[in-house]
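Key result, reporting period 2: structure in, sequence out.
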């Protein structure tokens, strides 16, 4: 039972993290030695997809060092406004807006309804709606246009690191040259021994839009390590969607301690 409880709680997080055919993106584009950081960042944002709504399914596998669990969930998203997720039979449901994080878990008869502090505590980094949306869409978590970056490269990707590091975090971004989407990004808090690695294994093209196909997330907090593998399955854009959500009566509210982060 302890393993089930741990899995269902963490499912809420990875849920927060598209019925048309898709294909993997294949390109012969190569890294250019003379590409400036400013040009890379500009192209990254120019290539962001435009949509009103997104819906579909994703398969999520979670490994905590002891056991692996997987589940296929439903996803609905209204760009910049809402993310809604549901596990099979509605055992876990979540509804996220820019100002609210809410979910309930029928296996534990508990719910959370508040801000992003719960999710931030689990991943060990400050989260908000934009960061959650960016993670799902293959975008940089932080706005790259708000700082100056140094650029280097490997044989396959550009590497961006801030010229002036953030006070609380160290960040780095790898951007692939095919579509200038994120290949990998890392946030770390050395003083707290926290690292968040997000790798985009490949991308797919759906209705002339480039989306992640598989995302691998590794969260390290001291001696604790959790790995999440997200595979996007069916995807559909711009349907008329609703977001049914109501916390069942009688559930216990999850309370956070003031020093959770």
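The corresponding designed sequence is given below.
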């Amino acid at each position: 039972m302890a393993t089930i409880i741990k899995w269902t709680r963490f499912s809420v997080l990875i849920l927060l993290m598209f019925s048309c055919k898709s294909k993997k993106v294949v390109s012969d584009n190569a890294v250019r030695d003379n590409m400036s950081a400013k040009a890379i960042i500009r192209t990254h944002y120019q290539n962001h997809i435009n949509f009103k709504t997104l819906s579909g399914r994703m398969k999520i596998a979670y490994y905590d060092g002891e056991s692996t669990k997987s589940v296929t969930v439903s996803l609905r998203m209204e760009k910049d406004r809402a993310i809604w997720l549901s596990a099979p039979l509605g055992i876990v449901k979540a509804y996220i807006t820019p100002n609210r994080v809410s979910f309930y878990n029928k296996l534990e008869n508990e719910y959370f309804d508040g801000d992003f502090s719960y999710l931030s505590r689990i991943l060990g980094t400050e989260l908000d709606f934009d960061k959650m949306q960016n993670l799902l869409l293959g975008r940089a978590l932080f706005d790259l246009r708000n700082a100056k970056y140094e650029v280097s490269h490997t044989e396959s990707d550009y590497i961006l690191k801030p010229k002036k590091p953030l006070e609380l975090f160290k960040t780095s971004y790898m951007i692939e040259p095919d579509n200038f989407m994120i290949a990998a990004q890392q946030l770390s808090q050395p003083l707290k021994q926290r690292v968040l690695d997000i790798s985009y294994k490949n991308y797919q093209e759906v209705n002339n839009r480039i989306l992640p196909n598989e995302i691998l997330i590794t969260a390290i907090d001291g001696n604790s390590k959790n790995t999440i593998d997200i595979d996007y399955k069916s995807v559909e854009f711009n349907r008329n969607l609703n977001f049914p959500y109501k916390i069942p009566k009688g559930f216990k509210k999850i309370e956070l301690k003031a020093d959770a982060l």
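The chain has four helices and 15 strands. Confidence is low (pLDDT under 50) at residues 1-5, 17-23. This case is discussed further under Risks and Mitigation.
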